[in-house]
């Protein structure tokens, strides 16, 4: 059985030491996730569940590449009963009298976050370690059981090399996850949206507002201990990660 406290500590440590290896790929995806129309929908879900909107956003990206016609829980079509884990959910359908932003996707997202393991709506630890671990639980703890960083979180950083569950319950040590991981998505989103912050964590301070995300060197640090204030650290971090050409 996975020690969740130890996994939180491990994920927080990985965050502090990670470097992006596919940096430029994060830019357009982050821009989609923080776009005003998308953010408004994620915020509406956050209001109903208590799950931070940016957590909803990265789950949406990982599960279905931000497909608004797919279930947040596993990426299956909204209008069908799900056949992937969690199975048996849906269908979720649009109705003529749906309030604004409370459509089929919204109802499916509430089902995923409230009624499906790992019951993210019950979580109270949104520190960086707690947040990343809840995301890892969302995808499954098979990687943690193998003492391996989860590509769901770390793909696109130097914390992940290879190894992937190619389907439910089937692990291939040589497969490489080509999707972008949640950690890199979060740091790219933070560079665009100053409202993103993590609770109860000394390194989780909102970065300053920036211009639209510029090109990024592939070796930029996600986090790196620094002297001085936390605010100065984050400002310098964003400047390094998204250095203007």
Structure, described:
By secondary structure, the chain is mainly alpha-helical. Strands 1-2 form a two-stranded antiparallel sheet. The chain is built from ten helices and two strands; from the N terminus they run H-H-H-H-H-H-H-H-E-E-H-H. Helix 1 packs across helix 6, helix 2 crosses helix 9 and helix 3 packs across helix 4.
Features:
single chain; 245 residues; mainly alpha; two-stranded antiparallel sheet; 10 helices; 44% helix
**Ranges with pLDDT <50 over ≥5 residues?**
201-245
Mean pLDDT: 85
Largest sheet, in brief, is: 2 strands, antiparallel
Total strand segments: 2
Radius of gyration: 17 Å
Strand-residue fraction?
under 5%
Helix count equals: 10
Derived from helix and strand composition plus strand pairing, the structural class reads mainly alpha
Oligomerization: single chain
Please list the strands of the largest sheet in the order they lie side by side. Answer: 1-2
Strand and helix order: HHHHHHHHEEHH
Helix content: 40-55%
How does the overall form come out from the CA principal axes? globular
Q: For the terminal residues, how far apart are their CA atoms?
A: 47 Å
Q: What does the secondary structure layout of this molecule look like, with pairings?
A:
Layout: H1 4-17, H2 23-34, H3 36-49, H4 53-64, H5 104-115, H6 128-139, H7 142-145, H8 151-154, E1 164-167, E2 170-172, H9 182-192, H10 230-241
Antiparallel strand pairs: 1-2
Helix pairs in contact: 1-6, 2-9, 3-4, 3-5, 4-9
């Amino acid at each position: 059985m996975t020690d969740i406290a130890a996994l939180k500590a491990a994920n927080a440590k990985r965050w502090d030491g990670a470097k992006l290896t596919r940096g430029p790929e994060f830019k357009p995806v982050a821009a989609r996730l923080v776009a005003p129309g998308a953010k408004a929908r994620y915020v509406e879900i956050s209001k109903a569940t208590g799950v931070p909107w940016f957590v909803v956003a990265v789950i949406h990206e990982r599960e279905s590449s931000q497909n608004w016609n797919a279930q947040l829980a596993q990426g299956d079509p909204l209008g069908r009963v799900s056949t992937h884990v969690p199975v048996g959910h849906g269908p979720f359908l649009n109705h003529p009298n749906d309030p604004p932003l409370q459509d089929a996707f919204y109802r499916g997202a509430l089902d995923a976050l409230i009624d499906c393991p790992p019951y993210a709506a019950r979580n109270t630890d949104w520190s960086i370690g707690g947040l990343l671990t809840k995301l890892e639980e969302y995808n499954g703890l098979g990687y943690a059981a193998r003492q391996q960083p989860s590509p769901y979180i770390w793909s696109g950083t130097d914390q992940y090399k290879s190894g992937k569950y190619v389907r439910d319950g089937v692990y291939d040590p040589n497969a490489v996850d080509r999707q972008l991981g949640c950690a890199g998505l979060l740091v790219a989103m933070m560079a665009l949206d100053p409202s993103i912050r993590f609770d109860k964590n000394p390194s989780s301070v909102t970065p300053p507002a920036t211009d639209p995300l510029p090109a990024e060197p592939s070796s930029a640090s996600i986090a790196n201990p620094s002297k001085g204030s936390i605010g100065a650290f984050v400002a310098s971090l964003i400047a390094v990660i998204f250095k203007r050409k």
